[in-house]
Amino acid sequence: MGRIGREEFLSSHKLPLTVVLDNIRSLHNVGSVFRTSDAFRVERILLCGITATPPSAEIHKTALGAEDVVPWQHFDDTMDAVALLKSEGYEVFSIEQCEGSIALQSFSVQAGKRYAVIMGNEVKGVQQQVVDASDGAIEIPQFGTKHSLNVSVTAGMVIWEFAKKFGWV
């Protein structure tokens, strides 16, 4: 199936994308984001606030070992993660429905740039101060009665779209 091993993954070229989880409550959602990040060779995941960290049986249940290969860091405050990313030259985008947001399908990437996307809490979304500190917001258009998606589903859609835009798929 063309799977690579841990060492090859760690030394491989990565999608120029960091995923930030802002106060995610569900450990299963965290594990799912690890697994998707592994599938698309995301650079790293920043786990912020109350977001749980490995090792954890509940994270492992959905990550299936991806938590052991995708690099991660924990920050008590998401704003510290945003400050780090900006100091490293990342373009930082909150995934949030708000005034001035860009539809995911309309967002374009630039070769040579690195991006970070912030996924928010399952109930409250991305903290307003984090949205304000971001370079912009990206939203997934929705047409039903609900105006939110599960955070792991959102992460999958966003990571997939970035992989497409960078020509990986």
Structure description:
The chain has 169 residues and is an alpha/beta fold. It has a single domain (6-165), classed as Alpha/beta knot, CATH 3.40.1280.10. 34% of the residues lie in helices and 21% in strands. The chain has six helices and seven strands. It has helices spanning 6-11, 27-39, 57-63, 78-87, 128-133, 151-165, and strands spanning 15-22, 42-48, 72-75, 91-95, 102-103, 115-119, 136-139. It has a seven-stranded parallel beta sheet, with helices on both faces. The model has no long low-confidence stretch (mean pLDDT 96).
Oligomeric state of this protein: single chain
Distance between the termini: 16 Å
CATH architecture heading: 3-Layer(aba) Sandwich
Shape: globular
- Count of all domains: 1
Q: From the helix content, strand content and strand pairing, which structural class follows?
A: alpha/beta
> Helices and strands, in N-to-C order?
HEHEHEHEEEHEH
The name of the CATH superfamily reads SPOUT methyltransferase, trefoil knot domain
Poorly predicted ranges: none
Largest sheet: 7 strands, parallel
Task: Give the CATH topology.
Answer: Alpha/beta knot
| Major sheet strand order | 3-2-1-6-4-7-5
Helix content: 25-40%
Number of helices: 6
Spell out the blueprint of helices and strands.
Layout: H1 6-11, E1 15-22, H2 27-39, E2 42-48, H3 57-63, E3 72-75, H4 78-87, E4 91-95, E5 102-103, E6 115-119, H5 128-133, E7 136-139, H6 151-165
Parallel strand pairs: 1-2, 1-6, 2-3, 4-6, 4-7, 5-7
List keywords for this structure.
169 residues, Alpha/beta knot, 7-stranded parallel beta sheet, 34% helix
